[in-house]
Design goal:
Strand content: under 5%
Helix content: over 70%
Order of helices and strands: HHHHHHHHHHHHHH
Number of helices: 14
Shape: globular
Structural class: mainly alpha
Radius of gyration: 20 Å
Distance between the termini: 39 Å
Largest sheet: none
Length: about 325
């Protein structure tokens, strides 16, 4: 019975294990073009579901109050799109003297220049009890900024440039992030009393969607023939750490090697972030208790300070 209770309590961790195991056993189900059609169900429907769910669960006051935390937003965007890429560049200067393939290093720099994926950033922040509204704003805003800034960063650090279809990327982000969020807020206005009375499991819904994303991500990873590296390079990348990547390096003879760090990093960051959720959530609860003791009942972890940024950064 204790085992069942433990599994019920940690159902998300059990789900991660099952998702990865299922992807390993039969990756063809969740790859692009496979029966699950992740290019539609994940890229559009799953992401839209996450933000509709957020729009439905968040109070309008929480969203509007998150917009005024300018210092928080400025810090996150500068750290993500300036400090982090520069730090990766300095680190790669040291790695350049090792036997690791130089095109893998370029791939790592490319990963460092990418904005955080909006879905996992929001879900992980919500899972640990962080400021979901701030995570939504910074993830979405960072992705819109990335349309312009990421190609410029790649040009600066790698000397690679290309024309980017701003309109199509912008429209996809708008339709899968902004529109579902607004619709969720509108629906909330009409069923607000019911939501407060029934308290639907919004966190469990978002976590379930994340499990689907984890499954399809690992399906892509396990089915990709390009992940065939010497052990030193593969282990180093695993411990260090798209469409835009294919656009910038379209037709490049080393595209497969440049893509490897992104293919490895994406599932790795989702897995690591998910594994750390219980520990960070426990830390959040203990910190909130200390704040309540020292500052009184008005102390709240949903403020600009604290773990909100760390939660967002898990989705980088």
């Amino acid at each position: 019975m204790r085992l069942l209770e433990r599994m019920r309590k940690d159902w998300f961790m059990v789900g991660i294990v099952l998702a990865i195991a299922g992807a390993k056993l039969e990756p063809s189900i969740g790859v692009n073009g496979g029966p699950l059609k992740p290019e539609i169900t994940v890229s559009y429907i799953a992401v839209a579901t996450i933000f509709f769910n957020s729009g439905l669960s968040l109070k309008t006051e929480e969203l509007t109050s998150a917009l005024v935390h300018l210092k928080l937003h400025l810090f996150i965007q500068i750290f993500t799109l300036a400090f982090f890429p520069a730090t990766i560049w300095l680190f790669l200067q040291l790695l350049s003297i090792t036997p690791i393939n130089e095109w893998l290093l370029k791939g790592l720099q490319t990963v460092g220049c990418m904005p955080p994926p909006v879905s996992s950033a929001v879900i992980l922040t919500k899972a640990v009890g962080g400021n979901e509204a701030a995570a939504i704003f910074n993830s979405a805003f960072g992705s819109f900024l990335g349309i312009v800034i990421t190609p410029l960063l790649l040009l600066l650090f790698l000397g690679s440039s290309s024309s980017v279809p701003f309109t199509s990327i912008f429209s996809q982000l708008f339709m899968t992030v902004v529109v579902p969020l607004i619709i969720g807020q509108i629906v909330r206005r009409y069923i607000k009393d019911w939501l407060e009375r029934k308290k639907p499991p919004f966190g469990a819904i978002s976590s379930s969607v994340l499990l689907m994303i984890i499954y399809t991500t690992f399906c892509d990873t396990f089915s990709n023939p390009n992940i065939d590296l010497d052990k030193f390079s593969l282990v180093l990348i695993l411990f260090i750490r798209i469409p835009m990547l294919k656009i910038v390096f379209a037709g490049h003879e080393h595209l497969s090697l440049i893509s490897v760090p992104l293919l490895i990093y994406h599932p790795a960051q989702i897995l690591l972030g998910s594994v750390l959720v219980p520990t960070i959530k426990s830390w959040m609860v203990s910190r909130q208790k200390k704040l309540l003791q020292t500052r009184g009942p008005l102390a709240n972890l949903n403020n600009p300070e604290g773990l909100e940024y760390l939660s967002i950064k898990f989705g980088h």
